[in-house]
Amino acid sequence: MMSQSEKCWQTRDRFLELHSRWMTLIGEHLQDPQGEILEYWRVEKADSVIVLPMLDDDLVTSGTHRILLPSPSYRPGVGRVTLDFPGGRVPEGQSPDQAAISALKREIGIDAVSITQLIPLTTQGWAVNSSFSNQKLFGFVAQIHNTAKLHPAMMAVTYPATLEGVQYLLRKLTCLQCRAVLLEWWLISG
């Protein structure tokens, strides 16, 4: 249900809509509750997924897990190589679950048969939204069977899924979305 203040905002016109494979750029004039006409620009992108891969260690002896990270990759937006969890956009016609499985295959070489559980951290997606950008983020935890064949060339590092491991990893991650997925998992696994 819309609040009274939300009802007072009106879109007067859309003066630009530019589509590409990756995004849509929109320019609009909005009228605020005081009657002032404001120019707003925003980008709409496909929703995205971030996957926290957890390798089951020998559950008989230790009962612990390790967090897997792919090799760092160059991020044009920040102009440097960063350490991130597997992830990407949700292509049109694909579910977030399918996109998560594709990201694991593409970024760390894990086949779907090696995934023992794919656990969504949210079913509705989190709004990654500002006045300029609009999308949803779907976070997942993927339990990877301990017999999965890991590809050393695709793997950067593993961290223990312990308080110390999570704290160390948080110091290494600069991606806010990756940090949010890690912290959400840590809070609910508590």
From TrEMBL:
Annotated Pfam families: NUDIX (PF00293)
SUPFAM superfamilies hit by this protein: Nudix (SSF55811)
InterPro entries with a match to the protein in the record: NUDIX_hydrolase-like_dom_sf (IPR015797), NUDIX_hydrolase_dom (IPR000086)
Keywords: Hydrolase
MF annotations from Gene Ontology: hydrolase activity
Domain Nudix hydrolase span(s) in chain numbering: 60-138
Highest taxon in the source lineage: Bacteria
Protein name: NUDIX hydrolase
